[in-house]
Amino acid sequence: MKKTLLLILFSVLAGCNNFETKKITSEEVLELESSTLNWKEVDEYPAFENCKNITELNKARDCFETTVANSVYAYLARQEPIVTEVIDDTIYVHLEISKTGKPVISSIEVDTLVTNQIPELKLWLKQSIDSLPKIYPASKRGIPVNSVFKMPIVIKAE
Questions:
Q1: What is the pTM (predicted TM-score) of this model?
Q2: What is the four-CA torsion angle of 29, 32, 33, 35, rounded to 10 degrees?
Q3: What letter does residue 51 receive in the DSSP assignment?
């Protein structure tokens, strides 16, 4: 019996080495987390008050983009440019939403024909973005982050 007890005791003590845990530093944890995170995607898109309670990511993005587009188109519709040529073109607005929720146009891709016919267009776009209602910023793991959108805007004038 002593031999059996001694054998069991030895196997338990030898087996305890398998239960040792490797200590990792916080830097190693951060490096591992950073390498597995997709920083190109957010957990929550920026939102207006009417989109805040939408939990599905695609629907939340669509709600945000639709609200911005409707607001911009409504602002541009109130302007009355005088053009000498027919315009049917698409411009692209690169809209950045800061981590504080402030919208800023980082750049505008516009054809020179449109710029020549409607020189105030960039100013009107900036004013339309400045007049947007309160925006809640995008977030990644609960932390507010900057986000950028490339928005097509169709310009038609006769």
A1: 0.72
A2: 160
A3: G
- Interatomic CA distance for residues 46 and 96, integer angstroms: 10
Using alpha carbons, select from 150, 153, 151, 148 the residue that is nearest to residue 45: 148
* Residue-level pLDDT at 101: 93
Q: Please report the pLDDT score of residue 31 as a whole number.
A: 66
Question: What is the helix (H) or strand (E) element at residue 14, kind and residue range?
Answer: helix 2-15
pLDDT score recorded for residue 158 = 78
Q: Which token pair is 90?
A: 């698409």
Q: How many CA atoms lie within 13 A of 79 on its CB side?
A: 21
- Give the CB-side neighbour count of residue 157, counting CA atoms within 13 A: 19
CA atoms within 13 A on the CB side of 90: 4
**Averaged pLDDT in 10-residue chunks for the chain of 158 residues:** 63 58 67 59 86 88 92 89 85 94 93 88 93 91 89 86
Burial (0-12, 13-18, 19+ Cβ within 10 Å), 95:
buried
Residue 61 makes CB contacts below 8 A (sequence gap 6+) with 45
Residue 124 has which token pair?
């009107």
